[in-house]
Amino acid sequence: MKSKLLVGLKYVFQFGLRPLALYALYKFGLITGYYKRIKTLNAERSTFNPLFALPNRNQLSQTLGEEGKAALLKEADEIVNGQVRIFGELVPLDFTHSEPLSHWTEYETNHALISRFSSLVPHSDIKFLWEPARFGWAFTLGRAYHLTQDKKYAESFWKYFEAFTQANPANLGPHWMNGQEVAIRLMSLVWCAHVFPNQSPYYQQLITSLHHHASRIPSTLPYARSQNNNHLVTEAAALYTAGLFLDNSNWRALGWKWLNWALQNQIGGYGEYIQHSANYHRLMLQTALWINLIKREAFPTKTSQAIGRSAHWLFSLLDNTSGLTPNLGANDGALIFPLSSSTFEDYRPTVQAAARAFLRTSLPSGTWDELALWFGLKTAARVADSSAYLTDNLRGQNSWAYLRASHFKSRLSHMDQLHLDLWWRGLNITQDAGTYLYNAPPPWDNPLVTTRVHNTVTVDGRDQMTRAGRFLVLDWANAHSKNLIETDENILGRVRAHHRGYGNVKHERSVTVYRDERWLVEDKLTSPRRHPHAYRLHWLLPDWEYQLEETKSTVRLRLKSPHGWITLSFHSSFIIHHSSLVRSGELLHGQRDVLPYEGWVSRHYGGKSPALSLALEVTSEFNVTFTSEFVFPR
Fold first, then answer.
1. Nearest 5°: phi and psi at 132?
2. Global pTM?
3. What is the Cα–Cα distance from 110 to 104, expressed in whole angstroms?
4. How far apart are CA 195 and CA 205, in angstroms?
5. Cα(509)–Cα(625) distance, rounded to whole angstroms?
6. Can you list the alpha helix ranges (DSSP code H) found in 246-277?
7. Which of 42, 95, 226, 340 is deepest in the core (most CB within 10 A)?
């Protein structure tokens, strides 16, 4: 009880009273049954306002190319045959339920009720239940139909839409309990209304369903506002979409108000999204691109500037060779406008569209242009890659690195200050473990938020901040970074950052890149008082063939990459008490207890792959320095 009270006091002190009051208002609506008494607005007419034009079919075909068209039609045919890809896995597309449905509020207040539904999906994680109902698969059918004009794709969409509607009446069942899920589905269905031909009586059902969806959102906006994250962005965008499409001025005004507020307040001065997550950043940018396509009024100047900063931030983190970005923060597998044949992990479709829309710049062209094509964006006169953007990221001849050093104002995703993501020739050498699962039983109940799985130093086994819940982090430890000017012509760049997330112990990290494709990382742990501390340096590396050698103060590791052997050397100013190498939860070298989630990397939700987890541990009452060197073949 005492710990809960302390967490509550910290929450109020660090977040303020406003989000707590908004959340209390939402809970009050649940307790009093207010949401059950709200009447659903029915459609008054069967017409709608067209919001965008479809792309030229020949141009779409050229953008996809033969390989892209084959991949699109293969996936579309799988859906026609009743199979859909959810987080990369092929599963039956089925919206029926084995139990009677209750009002959505029952699932919010009765955990046993929603647990029975969740138990029927992989990992007992409700996200696997929700994902098909976001209608992301409908974009595949729509793209295939627009490209080929084959009626089987349109007929399949209407069949599955009717199946969902019959099995999940308005406000009944788990698919209506979350305002964001309703919002994402609404925007998907509006897109479908433009792509698929009018097939009565289905079209009237669609218009009626959209009214039901839009009616569900306003009453629980206080919850989205209390979260102050992507929930508010998507729900406001959905209301604005419905307001335009169905000619409802109230929805239009409410959505526009909160969408602009969210974008202006959730995007930082440097462009990073409030949730400190690459994937949520992409979700926010895709939502902004959708609104940019359909909007009937100009963005306010502050909104335009914020979106521009956010586009720049994501552009600067793009690996030009692979199209990937560092897998920063929470990754829940969301891709709400999958208008491309590129893989989930490829960020080029969104970066290309955002660059053209908000930066007047284009990436070099490729199959990733399709999203920009659907969003009506033409090639910009200026063509550049991410190396053209002046950022704090360091760049070598064929390598680059991102050093995590952020200031937090709200709901951060991972405790990952001074984490280093190092890339070489399209390969992620020191990588972020990702997320894997949010809602699974222990030990996989979102454990990859912790500091120990990131590429940084932990002290006394502690996290840099306080994990107060599955999705709540308190006692934020802000980091400060500075790019240093060097006179040595062999040094291409150096950055230094520090934080004090471990109380009296200061962690300072310097990263230097040399002209000969060598990287040097120095970690200094200093304390004003002589007190013994256990320091642990960790690196998460690719699952490649390796050779390991060690002495009392040095560990040498060679990794066989697709482009040749990489040499990694690690040194400590004091004797290394323990060094260990772990792969997929099993100890390969050293002696220590291994946690089940060590030695894994997750690039998409619900999927994990083996990785090499290298840890060096030193115990000392004096200041300690770790030195890590990465040498790439030239």
1. -60, -30
2. 0.96
3. 10
4. 16
5. 10
6. 249-266
7. 340
Domains of the chain: which residue ranges? 21-261, 267-387, 394-631
| 264 vs 198: which has the higher pLDDT | 264
With a cut of 70, say whether residue 45 has pLDDT above it: no
Amino acid at 276: H
Write down the pLDDT at residue 280. Answer: 97
Q: How buried is 489 (Cβ within 10 angstroms: 0-12 exposed, 13-18 middle, 19+ buried)?
A: exposed
**Strands 382-383 and 361-362, sheet pairing:** parallel
- What average pLDDT does the segment 108-137 reach? 89
Give the strand pairing for 399-403 and 457-459.
unpaired
Single-letter amino acid code for the residue at 197: P
The answer to whether the beta carbons of residues 616 and 555 sit under 8 Å apart is yes
Specify the CATH number of the domain 394-631.
Answer: 2.70.98.70
Reported as a pLDDT band with limits 50, 70 and 90, residue 612 is: very high
Which residue type does 209 have? Answer: S
Domain boundaries 21-261, corresponding CATH code: 1.50.10.100
| Distance from C-alpha of 403 to C-alpha of 383, rounded to nearest angstrom | 26
Comparing CA positions, the residue from 202, 191, 121 lying closest to residue 156 is 202
Hey, is 361 helix, strand or coil? strand
